[in-house]
Amino acid sequence: MKLQFHNQRTKKLDEFAPLEQGKVRLYTCGPTVYNSLTVGNWTAYIYWDTLVRVLTAAGYDVTRVMNITDVGHLVSDADEGEDKLEKGARREGKTAWDIAAQYTDDFVKGMHDLNLIAPTYLPKATEYIPQQLALVRTLKEKGYTYQISDGIYFDTAKFPTYGDFADLDLASLKAGARVSYNPEKHTPSDFALWKFTPEGETRDMQWTTPADLTDEHQERPGFPGWHLECSAMAMELLGDSIDIHTGGIDHIPVHHTNEIAQSEAASGQLFAYYWLHNNHLKVDGTKISKSLGNGYTLHDLSKHGFDPLDFRLFILQSHYRTEGNFTFENVTAAKNRRLHWRNIAALRHQTHDTLSPQGRIEEDSATVSLYAAGRALLEALADDLNTPEALAIIDDAFAKVSTAKITSVHHHALIRFLETIDELLGLQLIATTPDITDEVKQLVIQRTRARESKDYAKSDQLRATLEASGIIVRDTPSGVIWEYAA
Ligand SMILES: [Zn+2]
Questions:
Q1: What is the pTM (predicted TM-score) of this model?
Q2: Which protein residues have a CB closer than 5 Å to ligand 1 (ion)?
Q3: Distance from Cα 243 to the centre of ligand 1, integer Å
Q4: CATH number of 4-278: 3.40.50.620, 3.40.50.720, 3.20.20.80, 3.40.50.150?
Q5: Which pLDDT tens digit goes with each residue over 87-125?
Q6: 3-state SS, residue 100
Q7: How far is CA 216 from CA 192, 208, 210, 220, 325, in A?
Q8: Which among 255, 193, 215 is positioned nearest to 27, based on CA atoms?
């Protein structure tokens, strides 16, 4: 099956070919665990989960690493300011280690709630310090580093293709950054591989910088830079060259550019062949920011009555490369769409294998279109993860199912299509649509009989009882069907 993705490395749509037949080595930049993720942060993980599902459905054996950044991600991308973990620790009166543990758990729970497939490896940066120091050593031995008062830096001037990935104009970067960048750096784009704990300070998280890495040949306390962590964990767990690397578009000019420079300088190999980036999610048309208080979390969504899967469907409605806009109105629309889809999924409990002769004829066309829709779904996603197109295919197929006579909907074809949707989009249409109990089924039958015998008072009363238990009955030309109440 042909897969193609928009590749930031080549700046075009590239057909996917793995390094090793049948296998994919995938790295996803993971969260910095200093607070609960916002809806904006989650967007990336929903799209990359879809990528994993599509690769798997296309027959690849996917080995995926997603890191946990639990140290070294500074408030500013320019290697300045406080470590986000230490900042979180002060905010909550805890240690950075406590903060990391608490928000790693929070992230894992969120992944579970959103039905995101757990990566093969979920390494914490603090557990890969020796590998990070080894990478600094290799870069130092190859002449790519220099030391200034606050740490060991990568000398980007020594890596001639540094600006290529993000099409950076290094000259204007230099001019523009003149005011704010650390004047000790040789070039504004140089970045910290390893930082020293400032004199007179003790950090919750710090390690010994080996004497052979410092200019003065003395040990001193320090901690890794954020960019270094990703390179070290990716190369340790997946090898020097990987197939696909994913992240947010904000990672392109600094974080991923730096990952590429340090990984390729160290190994001499191309670091990753395909680079996929998701666009931002805005909230009410504006950037998510602390000062606006619009950084909604999954917890906030649940307080507003939304299931995490409503949010998941909402995100999938946009293509990963376009900017999304979160509003409660938009998520409500996604919630209603999901309820409609769940009611279609519930028809599988109301369809049968044995059909009337007329039903069998009608069934043939409905069945064929459901099987075709399943194939079309995978094809849409194989084309640069076209999730809006995939959802449109589902809407079309479901429109046919809901207008077909219930007796002509093939039980197995419907189930197979629902399984395909769940497999590719993780919407749990099957898991969230249980059959009604035998008692409720009896009530449905009694209500139908009451209606047939024109006992409308009884029929209305039974309808009300059913509604109270979350079930709505509808009288359709092909008979009575039940649905879930909103
Ligand atoms: Zn990263």
A1: 0.94
A2: 29, 230
A3: 15
A4: 3.40.50.620
A5: 888 898 899 899 999 999 999 999 999 999 999 999 999
A6: helix
A7: 18, 14, 11, 10, 52
A8: 255
